[in-house]
Design brief:
The longest helix has about 40 residues. About 30% of the residues lie in helices and about 30% in strands.
């Protein structure tokens, strides 16, 4: 018995709808695959990158290493360092171990080397003034050597390193200062007040004994009325000097 065409029509329409659904699904899948394997690799070509530590490397070596990993190094801060040579990487941002996307920027802080100072002119200064001048220049006072000289006792004769040299900040500078002449002539301090007499004698490298007091002197209290050795006598550096002073002890 032959079926009528009107009974087959619904089945044909169902098959056609199913074919359209399958074609649409296949088209969607094809589009997905094109995106997954063609478009996405162009935008995110590789996996994320873990930033390595480049602190301690030279700037050039650090940059080459970062570039080889697909990262972009840029110069950050340049600062002086007491122990890192010039162009050494002192810090990085982001820090080592940070996971970033390819092409990420890594900022490098780099050493400018040691800060330098110029040794000031010290010759002719007193030891104290020379010490202050060194401190102002960012330098330190080193050893102080005394040397016999016709210059006033305590006057700076030389420095090591010498004035004008450029050295790392914080360098210790040794001084050669005058010990005064090996032999000198006793000055006349009679008539001076005892304070100025003491200052002069100490400046010449002489030692002052405890003054004796003259209660009968008509000179103002504190005035030197006598001295030993006498003025004009040859004396050695460090020799003791006795003074007699008007007034009471």
């Amino acid at each position: 018995m032959t079926r009528s065409p009107s009974r087959r029509a619904p089945s044909d329409r169902l098959r056609r709808i199913l074919q359209y659904v399958l074609l649409a699904a296949a088209g969607f899948m094809l589009a997905y695959l094109l995106v997954a394997f063609a478009i996405i690799p162009d935008d995110v070509a590789s996996a994320d990158i873990t930033i390595p530590s480049v602190v301690g490397l030279t700037q050039g070596d650090a940059e080459r290493r970062l570039v080889s990993l697909g990262l972009s190094p840029v110069l950050g801060e340049s600062r002086f360092s007491g122990d890192a040579p010039k162009s050494t990487v002192l810090g990085q941002e982001p820090s080592a171990g940070t996971v970033v996307a390819p092409g990420a920027t890594v900022m490098l802080d780099v050493s400018s080397g040691q800060q330098r100072s110029t040794i000031p002119g010290l010759e002719g200064l007193t030891r104290d003034n020379a010490s202050r001048a060194l401190a102002e220049a960012g330098l330190q006072l080193g050893q102080v050597e005394e040397q016999s000289s016709d210059a006033v006792r305590g006057e700076v004769l030389d420095s090591r390193p010498g004035s004008g040299q450029v050295v790392p900040r914080g360098t210790r500078v040794d001084l050669v200062v005058s010990a005064g002449p090996a032999e000198l002539v006793m000055p006349d301090v009679v008539g001076r007040d005892v304070t100025s007499a003491r200052s002069l004698l100490e400046l010449l490298g002489l030692a002052l004994d405890e003054p004796a007091y003259d209660t009968l002197s008509t000179l103002p209290v504190g005035t030197v009325v006598a001295q030993s050795p006498a003025a004009g006598s040859p004396v050695s550096v460090g020799a003791a000097v006795a003074l007699r002073v008007a007034g009471r002890s």
